[in-house]
Design brief:
The chain is mostly helical and 518 residues long. It is built from 17 helices and no strands.
Length: 518
């Protein structure tokens, strides 16, 4: 019995049965957990900082190392799953994630928490490409696969939406380490249900994993992501520039090695398929365009509008619900409209959402943010669903692990670039505005802190004895942050317009399998 069944006839694809749909429910669990895990730690950061007392640099590593490891190991884990079996890798990763979650919850030192967070990131990198590539192998019918990907993506949306709510409730009654234990029951359920409901697939013709290629791939992505995030946080410096340069150089060596190997770890021929390459580029640009403004929304709600983390989470539930509802229409619309047209129209719908963010600053700011994020979220759903479908559907069934990992890496890189490029521009706007409107009477260190970040300005204002100066400082900070949000939203809207044009002109008019609009 071969480990990878032969694919069905393209003209008569097999329809999914009850086992496949129950298996999809199992595959959504880790996606929901990963999104939730990324959200709750930021809420727990003040609590763990008070307990472990990490330095400012160490706290940043606690927050960032998880994402670094996921981004760095995605492609390697995706290609490993193609070789040893995607279900096997998923179950190994689930077990490792559960163990690392317990260790993170039990952390008593900063170093221990950083190491366990790194282990969580490596284990998390096994989950995303494994789940997505299994969907490709379980759902052969094009419309069913689009619906399955829609459900899979909704796992991320729901996880991100309930993260602030779940985290807020947990931290209200329990210690900060409890947030890590959320992963344990989910992974136990995956380990029990996975072998019963998920089939195994692997590339029997692939050789063993090429260790030098794997190390080059990990080093390349880690160096680039680290350099970009450091540039966004600290500005231009020798270390981040050297990291990006090193990553690019290692990438050149990696590409040359893959072209020379008879059995490369990563098949660069995937990029020869227009559906694959254009979808990867468009997904990267879409995430890049949103990152600069999207990540300022919660800062605005809490720092300017004065909402608590839990209140901000509740306020942002309608956009999340809107995304879920909009996503459910994508599979139906994809049967009536060419992917290139549906994606471009969706991106054009997201542009007014960013436009709404250019208007915040008055009494209706919260509602503008809610409406803007609602339009943005609904508008990008065709891109994220059909783009993912085009990426994994364009790849041969034996290469879907690598294709899935490429899709996820593109979104990670898009977010990092968005924060670095657009976020840095927004930070420069904030500093410039603050320098021009900073009230008199502040000490040099207070002025520096207030000019650096919105949080710094709020901290300085809270410590001031003179209430008039404090009020003037907060008013200046709120106006400067609003201006920065306006600029970031304007840049994002311009990038989205370009991406919509690329999608309209270059994306395929049919989904993989030759199915077009009816």
């Amino acid at each position: 019995m071969p480990s990878t069944p032969p694919p069905p006839d393209a003209a008569h694809p097999l329809r999914a049965g009850r086992r496949e749909w129950w298996g999809l429910a199992v595959l959504v669990l880790p996606t929901l957990l990963l999104a939730l895990d990324m959200t709750v730690l930021h809420l727990a950061a003040p609590h763990l900082a008070a307990d472990l007392k990490p330095s400012g640099t160490a706290l940043l590593w606690i927050l960032d190392i998880y994402g670094f490891m996921i981004a760095g190991f995605l492609i390697t884990m995706g290609t490993l799953g193609d070789r040893i079996g995607r279900r096997k890798l998923l179950l190994y990763g689930a077990f490792a994630f559960g163990v690392a979650s317990v260790l993170a919850a039990m952390s008593t030192t900063t170093a221990m928490l950083i190491v366990t967070r790194a282990l969580l990131g490596i284990a998390g990198a096994t989950l995303m490409p494994s789940t997505l590539s299994l969907i490709r192998n379980m759902f052969h019918d094009e419309r069913e696969r689009t619906l399955a990907i829609t459900v899979w993506i909704n796992g991320f949306i729901v996880g991100s939406a309930i993260g602030p709510l779940v985290g807020g409730v947990i931290l209200e009654f329990f210690a900060w380490g409890t947030v890590f234990l959320l992963g344990v029951p989910v992974m136990l359920l995956l380990l029990i249900a996975g072998p019963l409901l998920l089939p195994e697939f692997r590339d029997d013709a692939a050789g063993p994993l090429d260790l030098p290629s794997a190390l080059q791939c990990i080093a390349m992505i880690l160096a680039v992501i680290f350099g970009i995030k450091s540039l966004a946080r600290d500005g231009i410096g020798l270390l981040p520039v050297a990291a990006v340069a090193a990553g690019v150089a290692i990438g050149a060596v990696f590409v040359r090695r893959q072209r020379r190997l008879e059995q490369p770890m990563f098949d660069l021929g995937l990029f020869a398929n227009r559906g694959f390459s254009v979808s990867v580029m468009a997904m990267l640009l879409t995430i890049l365009s949103l990152s600069g403004a999207w990540l300022m929304v919660f800062q605005y709600l809490q720092g300017v509008a004065g909402l608590s983390p839990l209140q901000a989470g509740i306020v942002m539930l309608p956009p999340a619900i809107g995304q879920v509802v909009a996503s459910l229409f994508v599979p139906r619309l994809a049967g009536r409209m060419a992917p290139s047209r549906l994606v471009s129209l969706g991106l054009l719908l997201a542009v007014p959402g960013l436009g709404a963010m250019m208007l915040v600053g008055g009494p209706a700011s919260v509602w503008l943010l809610v409406g803007g994020t609602l339009l943005m979220g609904m508008g990008v759903m065709p891109m994220m669903i059909l783009g993912t479908d085009l990426v994994i559907g364009s790849a041969p069934p034996t290469k879907t692990g690598a294709a899935s990992a490429t899709s996820e890496t593109a979104t990670e890189l898009g977010m990092a670039l968005g924060i670095a490029i657009i976020g840095s521009i927004g930070a420069a706007i904030y500093r410039s505005q603050m320098q021009a409107t900073l009230p008199a009477g502040l000490a040099p260190d207070q002025a520096a802190a207030a000019t650096d970040t919105l949080g710094g300005a709020m901290g300085v204002a809270a410590a001031l004895v003179n209430t008039d100066t404090a009020s003037a400082l907060l008013a200046a900070a709120h106006a400067a942050f609003s201006q920065a949000l306006h600029v970031n939203a304007m840049i994002g809207a311009a990038i989205l317009l370009i991406t919509a044009l690329i999608a309209a002109r270059l994306l395929p008019r049919t989904l993989p399998g030759g199915h077009g609009p009816t």
